[in-house]
Specification:
The protein contains 30 helices and 2 strands. The protein is mostly helical. Among the domains are: 1-184 and 227-251, no CATH class; 606-688, Leucine-rich Repeat Variant (Alpha Horseshoe). α16 (360-379) runs antiparallel to α17 (386-400).
């Protein structure tokens, strides 16, 4: 057969007869773990290995063509006969000959031993110089490509060709390649000779000039060789990466589960390494690694959901800026974006696979649990730097709101959505997580919860569909309790953010709340569990706050009304307490929160129970901090505009805001003057 003859011609120069029996036995008995890099690797040049690679490429093309013609059951005759030939005595005679040989093994055993020895550069890599590393790696890249191509040809499994350890050596070659690619171009270091000193005599100068010319000529040749070597290194590495993607599409690792994680780690190593200077090379590497990961979760290598979980777990450090190699190479932001893209692709592929192979309800549950685990792990690795934390925070928020963004009422869940039950489980996790000993975790929890309380789509769930143990964590109440608890945190960063989160929720919700005391008579007639459809998020928050902060009561005249709940009283006490906090931003947040409570009261004048708070806000106009004085000006102005007929509010505004128009701080002056324009002049113009 033609291909068989080509293979024999390619294998003959490799001198397979010189491979010792001990090396062959060691490889096949130990799976490669005890095999060493032998001297006989010198018998295999890169050119000779490339010749074998070209023959195997022809075999793969014939196999692909036969599969296209006849389906999966189709097989090319020459491809089918390959292993029969390699294991036969005819192959030994044709390839090795009748001369002296150091082994009696079949050709495939000798050739595989030679390939593995070429791959095994780890034993000597550290002791090699830069140029020697390149040469050893070039041969190893070709040998690795030949091995992966050979594995895809049918029959190899029966002869023990796939060995997990040898496969991991292939992955190690790729890792070494990308590190060498990111290293400094040797051409840039070649010209290190010091400039020659100026000579006194013309003859000596002439001779030395000739020597320098010869030296520069040698250096130019060396630079040309280095450049050619670099180009080959790039080419061979990309070819191996492409072959690995093809291999994962045609060969199943389902019988070698221990090979899954090293494959994912190799993709991570390729993506976190310093990017090559050539944009085309960098782009090709990124594209191929994405294809590699997609091939892993295609279902060929085992349970799609399980492999998807492993991929996501390996990429979480990238999302949270904790990947150490990316940090060293200053590529954390690039890898952060890439990790998010990888996880999104994997989630989509897993959702599709589960939707096709399983019942819809179970698929939805498994995907939702996978998302829950991912979010919890991201929280447990949250970064400390503010800009990084905000990016991670936005990612967690968008994932937690999957399928519910902008929705205040229950909607039909899809396979890839975050289910209500897992959403409540995440809220329970956050309640515990917010008490972590580390500041950055408590801060992350408070910032995240502060976003969630403003999104009714997150916490508004059907309680009848939840396990009994989770019901107490449903709704906005438990989230609000966490913020109240953190508002007394020992660290000011957490206290200020917690109070700001409460204030933002009260401002949004209470602004939509009509007179709660007047609604008291109607509240009993409404079913509290009735779905609130067609309402905006702020209206849902308002209704939820009304139930949390007010309770039905009967006044002295027998009329139904609503009174403040213990939770409402706790909030008021909290804000009053934080007004005297030692930290500036905590006091500012407390002033704003009290403003939200004061303006929520109905009527034309401030409620009697809130008069003390009005005086406390007025007292903050003389605060030592600029930001607190500015907030006091804004809050007093907002209260007065909300209750324009209240004489006490007008009086305290006059005494507190007007003197600040001549405050030494420009920021305070401008804020006071702007408020005076709104409160005084705009109202005067409105009267006339």
């Amino acid at each position: 057969m033609e291909l068989e003859k080509e293979l024999v011609r390619a294998l003959r120069p490799l001198a397979l007869g010189g491979v010792p029996d001990s090396a062959v036995t060691s490889l096949f008995d130990t799976g490669g773990t005890a095999a060493l890099r032998e001297e006989f690797v010198e018998n295999a040049s890169r050119r000779q290995l490339r010749a074998v690679d070209r023959v195997f490429a022809k075999y793969l093309r014939r196999q692909a063509a036969a599969a296209d013609r006849e389906g999966d059951a189709g097989a090319d005759e020459q491809v089918a006969h390959l292993w029969t030939f390699l294991a036969s005595q005819d192959a030994i005679t044709a390839v090795v000959g009748d001369g002296e040989q150091e082994n009696s093994a079949a050709v495939y055993r000798s050739f595989f031993t030679l390939l593995q020895s070429v791959l095994n550069v780890r034993d000597v890599y550290a002791s090699l110089g830069e140029s020697e590393k390149r040469q050893a790696l070039l041969s190893a890249l070709v040998a690795a490509k030949v091995y992966l191509a050979w594995l895809q040809l049918p029959g190899g499994s029966a002869y023990g060709l796939f060995m997990p350890y040898v496969y991991r050596q292939v992955l190690d070659i790729l890792k070494k390649w990308v590190v060498l690619m990111a290293g400094k171009d040797p051409a840039g270091n070649s010209s290190t000779a010091a400039p020659a000193k100026k000579q006194g005599r013309r003859g000596r100068s002439s001779r030395r000039g000739a020597a320098r010319k010869k030296q520069h000529s040698d250096e130019d040749e060396s630079e040309d060789e280095d450049e050619a070597s670099s180009q080959r290194l790039t080419q061979y590495g990309l070819e191996l990466l492409d072959m690995l993607v093809t291999f994962l599409g045609n060969f199943s690792l389902s019988s070698s589960k221990e090979s899954i994680v090293p494959t994912i780690e190799t993709a991570v190593a390729l993506q976190t390494a310093a990017a090559p200077d050539n944009e085309g090379t960098a782009s090709a590497m990124t594209k191929k690694t994405l294809e590699l990961l997609e091939a892993l979760v295609s279902g060929t290598h085992g349970d799609t959901l399980q492999i998807a979980r492993v991929v996501i777990h390996c990429y979480i450090p990238g999302v949270t800026y904790q990947e150490m190699v990316a940090k060293e190479n200053r590529s954390s932001l690039r890898f952060h974006k890439l990790a998010i893209d990888v996880i999104a692709r994997v989630q989509l592929l897993a959702a599709k696979a589960m939707g096709e192979d399983d019942t819809e309800e179970n698929a939805r549950r498994e995907n939702s649990l996978m998302r829950l685990g991912m979010l919890q792990n991201i929280c447990l690795q949250a970064p400390g730097l503010a800009d990084e934390r905000q990016r991670v925070l936005a990612y967690v928020f968008s994932n937690a709101m999957a399928g519910r963004q902008g929705e205040a009422d229950e909607t039909e869940e899809k396979v890839g959505d975050f289910r209500d039950e897992e959403r409540v489980r995440f809220a329970r996790f956050l309640a515990s997580y917010s008490r972590n000993a580390k500041l950055k975790y408590r801060q992350f929890a408070v910032e995240l919860i502060s976003r969630f309380v403003l999104e009714a789509g997150f916490w508004k769930v059907k309680e009848d569909g939840l396990p009994r143990a989770l019901v107490v964590y449903s709704g906005v109440g438990p989230l609000l309790e966490v913020l109240i608890d953190r508002a007394r945190d020992k660290m000011s960063q957490v206290r200020s953010k917690a109070i700001a989160g409460i204030s933002a929720m009260l401002t949004l919700g209470l602004s939509k709340m009509s007179d709660p005391r007047k609604q008291g008579a109607d509240s009993d007639d409404e079913d509290e569990d009735e779905p609130m459809t067609g309402e905006s998020g702020s209206e849902v928050i308002a209704l939820s706050l009304q139930k949390l902060l007010y309770e039905p009561s009967i006044d002295g005249e027998g009329r139904k009304t609503l009174e403040e709940t213990p939770l409402m009283q706790r909030l008021i006490e909290l804000f009053r307490e934080r007004l005297a906090d030692e930290k500036t931003y905590v006091r500012r947040a407390a002033v704003h929160a009290l403003e939200a409570l004061l303006t929520a009261h109905p009527g034309e004048s401030i409620h009697a129970s809130a008069r003390k708070d009005l005086f406390d806000i007025h007292a903050r106009c003389t605060d030592s901090s600029v930001v607190v004085r500015v907030q006091a000006i804004k809050s007093l102005s907002a209260i007065l505009l909300n209750f324009p007929q209240d004489e006490e509010a007008q009086k305290l505004w006059n005494l507190g805001v007007l003197p600040l128009c001549v405050d030494p701080e420009t920021t305070v002056q401008s804020c006071a003057l702007e408020s005076a324009g709104k409160v005084v002049f705009d109202r005067v113009l409105a009267w006339y």
